[in-house]
Design a protein that fits this description.
It contains 10 helices and 10 strands. The protein has 343 residues and is α+β, with helices and mostly antiparallel strands. Helix 7 packs across helix 9. This is Alanine--tRNA ligase.
Length: 343
């Protein structure tokens, strides 16, 4: 797969396929939704409930970037933010046809064969959701290899089973992989929470999303969006796993700040706390390499990230440097207090 393709060009390919299939492409949610990184999403509860009352629409679907906690053991199947081309949601009528839109585009790009994790079912209190035999059959018909996801962590939302206490419940119909890289996902509204706290079924609505920068990396023959930049950072003397984490955190920070978020503590909104956690991920690594000029490093790699996302997403380089001194001071105080210089 030697074809070079920008994120912007790739997005146009998926949008054209969706529009040709009769879908409306919904406007974007903020990059860091209150659900991300496991924070209690109570701030978004009212909007989510209200959106479910709109006939034929679910505009609170996750749909710009979905957070995935990354593995700290050196393997890197996921980055901290999952950039999506867009997301479209409509009542499920023919699951094979719904899923085929993305699958066929991936196949046409040469991103094949694919395999998928399909939810094997789970219990939430007194409510049981059966194994997803429908998604299993639909993906098999499309030629995608299936793996049943039997982990309890998948219950209702990738390990966040408590979400049913506060928001409408979405469950993954399938996570689509090329090799060990997740490139697309299918989600479905399953339940909604009533004022009395009880769960009830909600009419089926399917949401789909595609990881753009991951696909660009695959088409260029390297790990998507991280390995190339991390290899450059490693030339400064940073260990490869630290370089991967640093680039991942810097990317997450700059994309998030471009959406207007500012870092904050426990008394601030969920998105602010999420952003501060990204800063701490980055600055713990900075403290481990005190001889390096990190301001120069951030400017170099911030510009590389800005070029990568040009025409698709803004990257908050100026915003990053405005808050960096304060966040660095907090990180240094925390390191002195705990006696840790990273990790």
């Amino acid at each position: 797969m030697e074809k070079r393709m920008s994120v912007k060009e790739l997005r146009r390919i998926f949008e054209a396929a969706w529009l040709a299939a009769g879908y409306e492409i919904l406007p974007s949610e903020p990059l860091v939704h209150p659900l991300f990184r496991g924070f209690n999403p109570s701030a978004g509860e009212g909007r989510a409930k209200e959106s479910l009352e709109i006939d034929g629409d679910f505009r609170q679907a996750v749909h710009a970037i979905a957070l995935r906690e990354y593995d700290r053991g050196g393997k890197w199947p996921h980055s901290a933010l999952f950039e999506m081309a867009a997301c479209f949601v409509r009542p499920v009528s023919d699951l094979v046809a719904e899923m085929a839109v993305n699958i066929e585009v991936l196949k046409s790009l040469g991103v094949w064969p694919l395999w998928a994790k399909v939810w094997s079912g789970g219990q939430k209190g007194d409510y049981y959701i059966a194994p997803d035999h429908e998604a299993n059959a639909a993906l098999q018909e499309l030629g995608v290899e299936l793996v049943w996801d039997e982990s309890d962590e998948t219950l209702l939302w990738w390990g966040r089973s408590t979400l049913a206490d506060t928001i409408p419940v979405l469950a993954p119909r399938a996570e689509i992989y090329f090799g060990d890289v997740e490139v697309a996902m299918f989600e479905q509204v399953q339940l909604r929470i009533n004022p009395d706290g009880n769960l009830e079924k909600f009419r089926p609505m399917l949401a789909m999303g595609v990881g753009l920068d991951r696909l660009v990396g695959i088409l260029e023959g390297h790990r998507p969006g991280l390995d190339d930049l991390a290899s450059e950072l490693a030339k400064y003397g940073v260990e490869k796993v630290d370089a991967l984490r640093a680039i991942d955190a810097l990317r997450a920070i700059m994309l998030t700040m471009a959406e207007g978020a500012l870092p904050g503590g426990s008394r601030h909104e969920n998105r602010a706390r999420t952003l501060r956690s990204f800063f701490r991920d980055l600055l713990r690594i900075e403290l481990r390499y005190p001889s390096l000029d990190w301001d120069i490093i951030y400017r170099e790699f911030g510009e590389r990230l800005r070029e990568h996302f040009a025409g698709v997403h803004k990257v908050g380089t100026s915003e990053f440097f405005e808050v960096l001194p304060h966040e660095r001071e907090l990180a240094q105080k925390l390191a002195r207090k705990t006696g840790r210089k990273g990790g």
